[in-house]
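Task 17 of the worksheet. Students: predict the tertiary structure of the chain below and write it out as structure tokens. Keep your answer in the requested format; marks are given for formatting as well as content.
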Amino acid sequence: MKPISMVTLLLLGQALGPAEESLHLDQYTLAKGPVVIEGVSQNASGLTYSARRDSLFVVLDAPQRVVELNLDGSLKRKINLNKFDDTEGIAWLGENHFAVAEEARGNIVLVELEPKDGGVSWKKATKLPTGIQVNTTNGLEGIAYDPLAKHYFVAREKRSPAVFKIIPPKPESDTPPTAILMSLAGRGLRDISGLHYDAKHKRLLILSHESACVVEANRYGIETSRLLLRGGKAGLSRTIFKAEGVALDKHGTLYIVSEPNQLFVFKPKGK
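Model answer:
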């Protein structure tokens, strides 16, 4: 019999220890949608929420663009991503700063989206190469950010879908970021299409369009609740097709975007 590793013991201890506060995604139900996203005709590929602007930001992978939306899905503005490639994820970092994931390049690209900006340049942006093995059909498909620890989460889409923690180097350092595979996170999902980190509850939300669900995982990667995105569940009349982005706002409302251009809004039952 193989000895139990310290990592396994740590995970078991977390699983068997006192229950942490959960979002209870299984108690969420559809409040609005599908809403056709204004300013988007196709390829809605990632989603984030900015508490500073109380807005949603959707990234498109073709053309490479970000659209800022009101919470009802109405358009605020369009922002071109000049010379970016295969943009599949976006995360709000604070203030007007965002991170964009490039699928095939395996990059995290840091940008500043000023309120009146109509475009940003890839050449002028800071790039963090993750070092994760990717290609044009199986690359980075989601990104989230922990503002307290100041590290990122990225997802590899399929063929061994996985979540990685990305620790950036110190500003003065020339060393590359450190990528750490998160044990258990995403296990059992057919793919991973989006991520969101809830700093208040220290929870990672993992979206899978092929498994049609959102999984809530604690900081050790252990699942604590799940929202099913299938017809007949959570107030849905039909399964959400190609769910690509997930975000949670400061009020606890959950948003899902799907290709080509639809927004779904979920709230806890009774709210």
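Marker's comment: The two ends are 50 Å apart (CA to CA). Residues 33-268 form a domain with the Neuraminidase fold (CATH 2.120.10.30).
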